[in-house]
Design a protein that fits this description.
- This protein is of the alpha+beta class and 108 residues long.
- The protein contains 2 helices and 6 strands, in the order αβαβββββ.
- The chain has a single domain, classed as 7,8-dihydroneopterin aldolase (MptD) (Pantoate--beta-alanine Ligase, Chain: A,domain 2), CATH 3.30.1300.
- The longest helix has 20 residues.
- The protein is elongated and about 55 Å long.
Length: 108
């Protein structure tokens, strides 16, 4: 039987996985990045056991096409979630690791 802390950690992974797979590929521009950050945060905040969410898009990585927008890439996302499951709290992060050239999720 998993502990409450293990369940909280599992829930954190679910939230970051959903965030990543739901929003990567979304159209984004320098004009809409703020609203996309808010939409991601509000969407994840609705899920069970979420205490807090922080989402930031690295605008330095945003490459806009001839039509004035680009696509959100996983490497552009910095996100942290705090999960509280029955009094056990965990924090997890999604962050681009330049050495691995990959966005990694981890408990913090």
């Amino acid at each position: 039987m998993p502990t409450n802390k293990e369940i909280a950690a599992f829930e954190a992974g679910i939230k970051l996985g959903v965030l990543y797979h739901q929003f990567v590929g979304s159209p984004v521009s320098s004009k809409t990045a703020d609203s996309l950050e808010r939409a991601i945060k509000e969407s994840i905040s609705l899920q069970p056991y979420v205490r807090s969410v922080d989402v930031r898009i690295d605008r330095r990585m945003l490459v806009e096409n001839a039509f004035g927008y680009g696509e959100l890439e996983g490497r552009m996302i910095f996100a942290e979630v705090e999960i509280d499951y029955r009094g056990e709290t965990v924090r997890a992060r999604l962050e681009y690791d330049p050495d691995k050239n990959y966005p990694l999720m981890k408990l913090i």
